Amino acid sequence: MSKKIHLRRNTLVAAAALTLLASTAIGAPATAAPNPNAPGQSNKDQNQPTTTIELVGINDFHGRIEANGAEAGAAVLAGAVKEYKAKNRNTLFVSAGDNIGASTFTSFSQQDNPTIDALKAAGLDASAVGNHEFDGGFDDLLNRVIPRYGNGNAEAGADYALGANVYAKGTKTPALKEYTLKKLNGVTVGLIGTVTDQTASLVTPAGISGLDFGDQLEAANRVAAQLSDGKKSNGEADVIVLLTHEGSSTSDCAAIGAEDTSYGDLIRGATGQIDAIISGHTHVGYSCAYPVDGWAEGLERPVMQAHQYGTTLDTLKISVAKKHKKVVGLEAGLVSLTTIASDGSTVPRFTPVPKVATIVEAALAQAEVVGAVEIGAISADITRGGTNGSDRGVESTLGNLVADMHLWATSNEDFGGTPTQIAFMNPGGLRADLLFGTDGTVTYKDAASVQPFGNTLFTMDLTGAQIKAILEEQWQPEGSSRSKLHLGISEGFTYTYDPDAARGAHITSMSYQGEPIAEETVFRIVTNSFLAAGGDNFFTFAQGTNVADSGQIDLVAGIEYFQSHTLVDPAPLGRAQIDQ
């Protein structure tokens, strides 16, 4: 293909606040106009006959198939897609990954099959692979997830797990399909998928032991060059869009464009052959645009992310000259799938699709059968950090309680191994709060929503020095999506810290049962299989000795804890304290 010409692309301004409440307010009318708070004014050459290609996109859907406030649900999402495609048949529905995994109980309890079925029925055309697509391991992705997207055909399903930077271990051999081509009214659209290069630290290492996750920028530019080299034998595209499961933690466009992260490198360094970047992973909404080397002055590339859980839809219009198949205009924004009615209630802005609604209803019915079993009771709300778990950098009652559960499961009289003394729980493994409701009852569904990953509990020996190193690793490496991940810790273990200290010098003291911990003292600890393998950049766990898989699933340990305790109270805060 000859070199792409980019003419008069507009500047897109920031869109979408971080909160779900804000996301309900950003939407345009249900006529599918772009977000009025982030107007994209296409300024294409009106003298050229053009074909308008549209993309509507989601990211981090995480199995939210049922409606829940601003989470519109799969049927309403399908209604939005249907409306866009009805108005312009040259429309693609895409995702930037994490369609499944960390799902609500309805989907989780059925291996996320209802989500896959619902998204396919909604008209999903392609998706980048996200880190959560690897939650069940690479074999599960290859042999179950991808074929289900393809109605039993793995080749057809490969378009729903695009990963150009995923390679066979020790090689540059692609482990997944790198891109897909879609022909729309004579225009070939190339969709490249990449996933965060931190994936190896975000999923259980054993499930991806045969994979490497390479540099996204290199992979995206390599594939874009291939699709633009004029050789039909290796694929050619008139339009190229990158679907990346990577994003920013802020909605401020100026900050995003300047950030010193791998995502910042990606959006600044992406070749001019890539026309737009649809993002995910960080669950933040924004619609921005940035200058690109080689493009005419004032021309900028759209970069966007549509919040999370199907609350918002990316909208992208690409005008392509019919004669030369060159991109001559772009228009982008975000659209909320719900709105606030006059009575203050949240209502859908698009008509649900009955076929998809039927899939969701069947999934809900089956989940109720599994999830209705009562397992215990709580005395009050037990929550994660921040609103709806939005702050993983602070101590939480739920994080400490789950650590208590894991300690109990590996130290009570029924445990056959060496009893443990300290437990650690990662905040990213907690996906829902435990709320008192009307009577404090806790069901299987409630418990499963808190710990949906099915990790096993691992025990190991760690020295005091190693425990201190683990606590220091709560302050994440530079370039990470979150600067701190606060570990839940079990009763009997406490520490103090200086939040303003230099990296590696935050922890000022540690105690066990009120006694200071010496660096050489060895403790038997328990954590989940994800952390045990060094997940979330807690690499020191992988240095533990006498490691043993207890064989207990974290969810089962939680259920048995509830069944053995008549009433469960919120675990107290203050196990970690700022050094005064």
UniProtKB/TrEMBL annotation:
InterPro entries xrefs: 5'-Nucleotdase_C, 5'-Nucleotdase_C_sf, 5_nucleotidase/apyrase, Calcineurin-like_PHP, Metallo-depent_PP-like, TAT_signal
Residue ranges of the TM segments: none
GO biological process per UniProt: nucleotide catabolic process
Pfam families assigned: 5_nucleotid_C (PF02872), Metallophos (PF00149)
Keywords in alphabetical order: Hydrolase, Nucleotide-binding, Signal
Domain 5'-Nucleotidase C-terminal: 375-541
Calcineurin-like phosphoesterase domain residues: 57-284
GO MF annotation, one: 5'-nucleotidase activity
Source organism, top-level taxon: Bacteria
Designated name of the protein: Bifunctional metallophosphatase/5'-nucleotidase
Organism: Paeniglutamicibacter gangotriensis
